[in-house]
Design goal:
This protein is of the alpha/beta class. It has helices at residues 41-50, 66-75, 88-102, 115-123, 146-157, 181-192, 204-213, 228-237; strands spanning 22-26, 32-33, 36-37, 54-59, 85-87, 108-112, 127-128, 135-138, 161-164, 170-171, 178-179, 197-198, 221-225, 241-245, 264-266.
Length: 276
């Protein structure tokens, strides 16, 4: 049975589904689980299309390009155009592009990451180099290199600005959890004494950059997520209507341990279709 929360002092103003013009949604645990579409996800996406709602699928994963992710979602049974996918790599590239345009920063970046990040930075006009970079940009990769980490440490100590795509300490693999961006960032921080600026969730900047992509306004935008500590808190801080689904990480009994609440709590996205 779906449950809707009442307005909470720490939550943004409650809006019903018919008042929402734009939707942001997390991917894993909300639309898909272990490469299988969550029941109701395909119907919700089709409902957004049928009602001309603007929407973006958000992910902290910086490994894949939107084209890659669209193909992976298609294999799971979900048709999401690549232009409707917004990754932490794209948000990071947009952030850095704005930094360069609004200051005297150069556009040289030393990057630890895979195609999702390198492609986003290249398309944003950055020169990817290991010689005197202006930025060290750390993203997700399945093959972290001690040599690359050492190079990042030296560049940061020489004055490069330290940026990370997301704070996730571990990521999934077929054999179990593996170290991810946050864990490697902690290693670099320990060696340099420099904390990275992290662009991805729970930084509300990730949501604001996504809203800019679809010309959305916080007053009429909702965020759907399965994590209280990233999706919901960042959505709340960005002024969005927040929807927690219980099909992923956060379980109902865990909600009370947080000092804030989502606007709605639903079993899954299947409960949203009737509200749109």
């Amino acid at each position: 049975m779906a449950e809707e929360t009442t307005p909470h002092p720490s939550a943004s103003v409650y809006r019903n589904g018919h008042e929402i013009e734009c939707w942001l949604t997390d991917m894993d645990g909300v639309l898909v689980h272990e490469n299988q579409a969550i029941p109701g996800a395909a119907e919700l996406i089709q409902r957004w299309v049928d009602t001309s709602k603007r929407f973006l699928v958000l992910t902290n994963n910086s490994i894949f390009t939107p084209r890659d992710l669209a193909a992976r979602l298609r294999a799971s049974g979900l048709e999401v155009p690549e232009e409707n996918i917004w990754t932490s790599a794209l948000a990071t590239a947009q952030f850095l592009k704005d930094q360069v345009q609004s200051s005297d920063s150069g556009n040289r970046a030393y990057t630890i990451g895979e195609a999702g990040l390198t492609t986003a930075l290249h398309e944003a006009g950055f020169i990817l180099t290991d010689t005197e970079p202006d930025f060290v940009v750390l993203g997700e990769t399945r093959t972290y290199s001690f040599e690359a980490i050492t190079m990042a440490v030296r560049h940061i100590l020489a004055g490069a600005r330290f940026i990370a795509t997301n704070p996730d300490a571990t990521g999934p693999s077929k054999d179990g959890p593996m170290p991810a961006t946050g864990a490697i960032a902690a290693m670099i921080t320990k060696a340099t004494g420099r904390e990275p600026y992290i662009v991805g969730k729970p930084n509300p900047m990730m949501f604001r950059s996504a809203m800019n992509q679809i010309d959305a306004h916080s007053e009429t935008t909702a965020m759907i997520g399965d994590r209280m500590d990233t999706d919901i808190v960042a959505g709340m801080e960005a002024g969005l209507h927040t929807v927690l689904v219980l099909s992923g990480i956060t379980q109902r009994e865990e909600i009370v341990s947080f000092p804030f609440r989502p606007n709605q709590i639903l079993n899954s996205v299947a409960d949203l279709k009737s509200q749109i």
